[in-house]
């Protein structure tokens, strides 16, 4: 089976989808001739032409607004916002138009739109290139929110997102773009972990939205994570020796609540890990759900490990994001509670 980076897997997903369905169009800032700032769309314009893969003006509201019109008309746009930090000018279009279209039209129109965005840290981008805004979208009814943690899932989930009849926010962790990440380091390493997550099949396949994956099976504690933090959690578990379940959520909305509840009821303890700031982050929703559904099974309070509630200088990126040491302390404290 071919081994691909996440960038290659994402590009392959768009290539496969464009080849199978002429309604799929790809556009955004520099995604055509240049192939995207991270090269996720490299070669697509040469293969499918300038009407299927093209550059847009530097206007996120224009990119998303045009895509919503295309989706309502019957196309399936997959657009790129160059960094998740740049999405705010388009937020009204996403919330007020894309997410509501099915309901406002009583089902007469749908919005089969994918908004791809590089998210989180990994390039020392600081406050303007390293934000993790997933909670802003999980609060919006009518959207789906996806965060893959490996190339296999990135391809399968993106194909599923493109084929979905409703708008999908597809967040791509930058730290995982170019290769393996074992959680101990601030850069990609080789080889991939025991899961062989770099293996990606050729051709068409899809990974269902709304289904979590168990990355490690354990009985003492549950770790809920997504994206880059899956590997940080794995590293923390290795360093502490705690027998933990690690659940990779993959899709935040709709959430695989059954998988979360089953794991926490089995272990009786839960630690939530995410890269975004702590206050009002998605981890707060996860903690509330675990308390609501697993209260009588819990042996300790639900713990959260997240980014600091403050903007941060570029040079302090690796102190800002949760690392194995911070996650490991939370695991130990939860076991001792």
TrEMBL record:
Q: Name one GO biological process term.
A: response to nutrient
Pfam families in UniProt? Transket_pyr, Transketolase_C
**Cross-referenced InterPro entries:** THDP-binding, Transketo_C/PFOR_II, Transketolase-like_Pyr-bd, Transketolase_C
Q: What EC identifiers does the entry list?
A: 1.2.4.4
Give the highest taxon in the source lineage.
Bacteria
Q: Which molecular function terms from Gene Ontology are attached? A: branched-chain 2-oxo acid dehydrogenase activity
Per UniProt, which keywords does this protein have?
Oxidoreductase
Class of enzymatic activity (EC top level): oxidoreductase
Record domain Transketolase-like pyrimidine-binding: where: 4-179
What is the required cofactor set for this protein?
thiamine diphosphate
- The name under which this protein is listed is 3-methyl-2-oxobutanoate dehydrogenase (2-methylpropanoyl-transferring)
What is the species listed in this Swiss-Prot or TrEMBL entry? Answer: Manganibacter manganicus
């Amino acid at each position: 089976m071919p081994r691909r980076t996440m960038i290659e897997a994402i590009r392959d997903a768009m290539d496969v989808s464009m080849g199978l369905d002429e309604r799929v169009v790809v556009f955004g800032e520099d995604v055509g001739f240049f192939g995207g700032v991270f090269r996720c769309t490299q070669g697509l314009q040469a293969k499918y032409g300038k009407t299927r893969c093209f550059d847009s003006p530097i206007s996120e509201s224009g990119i998303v607004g045009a895509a919503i019109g295309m989706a309502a008309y019957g196309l399936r746009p997959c657009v790129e916002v160059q960094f998740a930090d740049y999405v705010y000018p388009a937020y009204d279009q996403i919330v007020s138009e894309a997410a509501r279209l099915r309901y406002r039209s009583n089902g007469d129109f749908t919005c089969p739109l994918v908004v791809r965005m590089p998210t989180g840290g990994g390039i020392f981008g600081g406050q303007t290139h390293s934000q993790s805004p997933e909670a802003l979208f999980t609060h919006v009814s009518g959207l789906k929110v996806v965060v893959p943690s490996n190339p296999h899932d990135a391809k399968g989930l993106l194909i599923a997102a493109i084929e979905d009849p409703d708008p999908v926010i597809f967040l791509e962790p930058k730290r995982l773009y170019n290769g393996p990440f074992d959680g101990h380091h601030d850069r990609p390493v080789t080889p991939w972990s025991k899961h062989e997550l770099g293996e990606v099949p050729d051709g068409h396949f899809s990974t269902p939205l709304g289904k979590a994956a168990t990355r490690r099976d354990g009985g003492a504690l549950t770790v809920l994570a997504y994206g880059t933090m899956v590997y940080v959690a794995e590293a923390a578990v290795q360093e502490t020796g705690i027998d933990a379940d690690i659940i990779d959520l993959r899709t935040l909305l709709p959430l695989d609540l059954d998988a979360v509840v089953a794991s926490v009821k089995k272990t009786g303890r839960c630690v939530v890990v995410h890269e975004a700031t702590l206050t009002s982050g998605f981890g707060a929703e996860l903690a509330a759900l675990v308390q609501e559904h697993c209260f009588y099974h819990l042996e300790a309070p639900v713990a959260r490990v997240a980014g600091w509630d403050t903007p941060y200088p570029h040079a302090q990126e690796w102190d800002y994001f949760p690392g194995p040491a911070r996650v490991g302390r939370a695991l130990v404290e939860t076991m001792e509670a």
